[in-house]
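ESCALATION

Customer reports they have been waiting on this structure for their group meeting. Please prioritize. Original submission:
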Amino acid sequence: MTMKKILGVCLALVLMAAVACAEVTFTAGTYEGTGEGYGESGVKATVVLNDEGVESITVDAPDETPTIGGAAIETLVPQIVEAQSLAVDAVAGATMSSNGLKAAVATALEEAGIDPTELGYEDPTPILPPCMLLKEVEAGPDGEKVEGYRYFDYTTQGTTCSNQITFAINEADMTVHNIKVLGGCSGTADAFGALCEGKTVDYCVERMSGILCHGSKGSSCPDQTAKALAQAQVVITGAPCENCGAAE
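Update from on-call: job pushed to the front of the queue and completed.
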């Protein structure tokens, strides 16, 4: 492609972007929206619009950790206003608070009659089936490998603090061993991991499935572990899985 053609393509893209922006009609006023953050009460955003765009954003998020989630929100608010866009990166280490803020602003924009996707909003929490999140591995995270044991890694989803769960299952009796939850509350994870140690998959799934945190639309580390164990049982035995669904 010649330089002239490249410049022509770039100009066309710029014009398309300008047209897309021009199609957004702002109605001046104050609008409110809510999003699900780290804390139980979530994130509430009050968005003031003028005829040209977002004038200001005020946030009420009392349950977000001040030095993590609160700091992330303080960082993102001016970025959103300056960019006039929700296509800003979540702050590392405060993903739930960041996504909660963007969701709150998005619902406020909807109240104003604006499609938030026109300002770059993307739903940050697509729900995937557990079969897409589970991976069988050759050994445990510390390199342990015992004959007759199957080892698994599971990527969590939903409103949880953790990001990965690892565990082993004894094929002979379908007992669970060495549950480790990465990125979550270590004390809680160690507690339910210890309670499940040596128990059957069915025992653990029955007791942990459906436990929610951060509100009714969330999940939890125990709930995600139950989904991981249930899916691993399907992999090992091919048995029907009644608890493999993603958190609602």
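Sent to customer with the following note: The longest strand covers residues 175-182.
Escalation resolved.
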